[in-house]
Write a structure and sequence with these properties.
8% helix; 14-stranded antiparallel beta sheet; two-stranded antiparallel sheet; mainly beta; 409 residues
């Protein structure tokens, strides 16, 4: 696992002058899991972005991403986030140059990014899995109104993609440096292949309040109402996928035959993958409203047990029992939150459809009887033509549909 976090923040602490902090924190763990983007990233739920810093009481408005209630009883009167970037990467298939994540635009649109920054991990017979979450936090702020109330605003652009339990035999032959003959010239079967990828923005207005305070027991609650802006999505699903990898296939290149009775493919219509009049590839992702704006919601509550709360009271300027804002007053804190309630819907691009993918007649029978051969009328995809730019779905679907058996809808 690798975590990256970059923050530029401005904050005002009660009783202090304006402070400006520019901090970069990079958290590395052993690179057992790194980053992968393959043709079949499958939906997988993972942790929230901007971890592990979100539990820090001095993170201000950033804490609202995980717990909307956190902005009340804050350490700050005002906290302003100018820019933040977080990325979480997990996988067991490739390792890569982690600093390359600081070029997210290249990662999305430049296919050479993959060749320059990824290295194949040796095979071990286990299914391959991975997950990528990238989050850009734009101008955001919180304002403490008083001890009982606080408001905040967040603006974010988020990307989520994943891969889960893809057979090793499907991913290993894609890399040129891999030369293990045991994965070639054999029939394989995958029960279900499902992929999903989404980029979206959300703009959140947060409110939090103190619900109960007996001194020893303290409860606060908050919510964030979000305007969701769908920026792009794609999915690919295949049932009962039978495939055969030929090491010396089309023009001597590694080639593959794909076969499935039901394939579903779709992409939103703002992915600019078409060539222009000069034969130059499209620009990739465009920041446009292409889905009808929808409303999302985050909810949260926090309980704090403060057995020595009186130790944090003080008197000043004729006022008594003032509370120390700069101190953690709890012995135990428990929070619960429900995040990302809502949905996004896109207009499908041309070519999004269901179809039968049959490149080898009677592929199922060949697999069932372990006949590691193929008829002469088999159709092939040259694996060297499979692009690793974003999104790869379009390249894959366009090629498959040219040689497929038929359409379902």
């Amino acid at each position: 696992m690798i975590n990256f976090l970059y923050l530029i923040k401005i904050f005002i602490i009660p009783g202090s002058n304006l402070l400006i902090e520019i901090a970069m924190r990079t958290f590395y763990k052993n690179a057992i899991l790194a980053f992968v983007l393959f043709t079949f990233p499958v939906a997988l739920t993972m942790a929230q972005d901007f971890l592990p810093t979100l539990n820090d009481n001095y993170m201000g408005i950033n804490q609202a991403l995980l717990q909307p209630a956190s902005i009340v009883d804050s350490r700050f009167k005002v906290d302003v986030n100018l820019f933040g970037y977080s990325a979480e990467i997990y996988n067991n298939m490739v390792s890569f140059n982690g600093l390359a994540l600081l070029r997210p635009n290249d990662m999305i649109n430049d296919e050479e990014w993959w060749n320059e920054n990824v290295t194949l991990v040796g095979p071990n017979g286990t299914p391959k899995s991975g997950y990528v979450s990238a989050d850009v936090l734009g101008p955001s702020f919180l304002v403490t109104i008083n001890a009982r109330h606080a408001i905040g605003f967040t603006s974010r652009i988020r990307q989520v993609l994943s891969i889960d339990d893809i057979d090793e035999s499907l991913v290993m032959p894609i890399y040129d440096e891999f030369d293990e003959n045991s994965y070639y010239d054999r029939w394989y079967h995958a029960q279900n292949i499902r992929s999903a990828q989404n980029i979206f923005a959300d703009y959140g207005l947060s409110y939090a309040t103190q619900v109960y305070n007996s001194g020893t027991h303290y409860i606060k609650a908050g919510l964030t109402v979000k305007l969701l802006q769908g920026l792009g999505g794609a999915y690919l699903k295949a049932e009962d996928l039978y495939y055969y990898v030929d090491k010396n296939g089309v023009d001597g290149a590694v080639s593959i035959s794909w076969n499935s009775p039901h394939v579903q493919y779709g992409a939103s219509d703002n992915w600019d993958w078409q060539d222009d009049n000069n034969g130059i590839n499209g620009t990739g992702f465009r920041y446009t409203f292409i889905a009808n704006p929808t409303v999302g919601l985050d909810l949260g509550a926090v309980y704090e047990f403060r057995p020595k709360y009186k130790d944090y009271l003080y008197n000043m300027d004729g006022e008594t029992d003032l509370v120390r804002k700069d101190q953690n007053k709890y012995l135990l804190k428990i929070g619960i939150s429900v995040l990302d309630i809502g949905r996004l819907r896109y207009k499908k691009a041309y070519g999004s459809k269901d179809f039968i993918m049959e490149q080898t007649p009677d592929a199922k029978n060949l697999y069932d009887n372990q006949i590691n051969d193929f008829p002469s009328n088999t159709h092939w995809m040259n694996m060297e033509e499979l692009k690793f730019r974003f999104p790869p779905y379009v390249d894959f679907s366009d090629t498959i549909q040219k040689i497929t058996h038929g359409f379902l809808g």
